[in-house]
Amino acid sequence: MITVDRLTRTYGGYRAVDDVSFTCRPGAVTGFLGPNGAGKSTTMRIIAGLTPATSGTALVGGVNYLDIPNPGTQIGVLLDASAQHAGRTGREILALSAITMGLPMSRVDEMLKLVSLTPAESKRRVKNYSLGMRQRLGIANALLGDPRILILDEPANGLDPAGIHWMRSLLRDYANRGGTVLLSSHLLHEIEVIADEIIVIGQGKIVAQGTKEELLKTAGTFVKAGDASALANALTAAGLATTPSGDGGLRTEADPATVGKAAAAAGVALVELRPAEGAGLEEMFLELTSSTQREGASS
Question: Which of 36, 119, 205, 243 has the largest count of CB atoms under 10 Å?
Answer without folding.
Answer: 205
